[in-house]
Amino acid sequence: MDEIVNKVANSKLMVFDLEDYYPEENHVTSIDISQWLFGGFVLKESEFRDHLKNTDWSVYQDKYVALFCSEDAILPAWAFTLVTVHLVPYALKVVQGSKENAIIEWYQDVLNKLDYTDYFDKPLILKGCAKKQVPQEVYTIAIQKLIKVAKSVMFGEACSAVPLYKRK
């Protein structure tokens, strides 16, 4: 009987797995500013400022922070900006939107700093099956980086990859 050979393991095919760069749970967080609104709906400036002044912002040290309001409140344009002023000395980045928006920003920053030379002129698989919830937008960011260096890029797993790009 012939020996079973793993052709994928013996090929030049490289895997680019976005899950490898997924932020640890404590690196990305969110703040719902409705907690500082009167009745959860109304922003009273003096009370709002007092809440912000009395908040321990150090818990957001070195984190990506998403600011959002879970209530359908009418907020002045400066509300999120004022919260950001308090966060800037501590947070790595502040994003207005969902926690997913902050994760996308995390990836944008990480992928902008990566050294892609190992992938130069190589066939790649942009791994598509993940245990963690990698936002779809991140794949769009990643492919823009990878096609600049890779010989070809496929999406998915080696056993069922979908061709995306092949350098001419």
TrEMBL record:
Domain of life: Bacteria
InterPro entries on file: DUF2480 (IPR018914)
Xref: Pfam families: DUF2480
The name this protein goes by in its record: DUF2480 family protein
Protein species of origin: Flavobacterium indicum (strain DSM 17447 / CIP 109464 / GPTSA100-9)
